[in-house]
Amino acid sequence: MTHAPFIAVEGPIGAGKTTLATMLSTEFQLPIIKEIVEENPFLDKFYRNMDDWSFQLEMFFLCNRYKQLEDTVMQYIDKGKPVISDYHIYKNLIFSERTLKGTKRDKYRQIYHVLTDDLPKPNVILYIRADLDTLLKRIDKRGRSFEDAMDTAYLQQLIEDYDEAMTSLAIREPSTPIITIDGNKVDFVENKDQFAVIALQVKEHMQ
Q1: What is the pLDDT of residues 156-201, one digit of tens each?
Q2: Residues annotated catalytic, as ranges
Q3: How confident is the model at residue 49 (pLDDT cuts 50, 70, 90)?
Q4: Four-way CATH pick for 6-204: 3.10.450.50, 3.40.50.300, 1.10.3210.10, 3.30.565.10
Q5: Which parts of the sequence bind ATP (predicted)?
Q6: Distance from CA of residue 11 to its chain's centroid?
Q7: Is 94 annotated as a binding residue?
């Protein structure tokens, strides 16, 4: 059971999750949990050959996120301290359901549930939606070399997978509000008023 506000920011690759989570962390003086991305040694291989490297990639992410959230429980949530993260552990299923097949996907699902079923879940989710053009511009702007080989069809499918996943989460966890942000229209970095609206929505769930 979550004893303190646990805020998660989610969205497809390039949506601005880490940026928004960092801004909210500063705004409310909250500790922030950032997922490990560039440290994953399989990313470059994965974007060049998804079939060969997907299981290694997904297992690396799952184990690292599990460890991060386990530490988060001990350091913050169990002590009644609010925390924000730039991901929801559920994202592991969003990605793995697309990248894994057959017995590898079955094995991954089993491991996922063993590791995560007793972890605390966020009590508010910020979901940044954005179309392909917006995501591609943001991905290009941040200049990660391993993302150069990313298949745009994969990214478009991921956008659709996220929409379905958020709908599923809303049904499975109706007590957890999902605040949807239109990433095509809302620029929380350059527009202070738009960021203030988001911050106010988050504050309402921190009472």
Answers
A1: 999 999 999 999 999 988 989 999 999 999 999 999 999 999 999 9
A2: 86
A3: confident
A4: 3.40.50.300
A5: 11-19, 138-142
A6: 6
A7: no
* Domain residue ranges of the chain, discontinuous segments joined by +: 6-204
* Residue 141 annotated in ligand binding: yes
**What pTM was estimated for this model as a whole?**
0.88
Question: Which pLDDT tens digit goes with each residue over 124-164?
Answer: 999 999 999 999 998 888 767 666 667 889 899 999 999 99
Going by C-alpha positions, the residue among 169, 164, 141 that lies closest to residue 19 is 141
- Is 17 annotated to bind a ligand? Reply is yes
Q: List the structure tokens of 171.
A: 């049904």
171 has binding-site annotation: no
Residues with Cβ < 8 Å from 155, sequence gap 6 or more? Answer: 12, 13, 14, 132, 135, 136
Distance CA 77, CA 6 (A): 8
Q: How far is CA 117 from CA 18, 69, 196, in A?
A: 24, 12, 34
Q: Sheet of 178-182: strands edge to edge?
A: 32-33, 83-85, 6-10, 124-129, 178-182
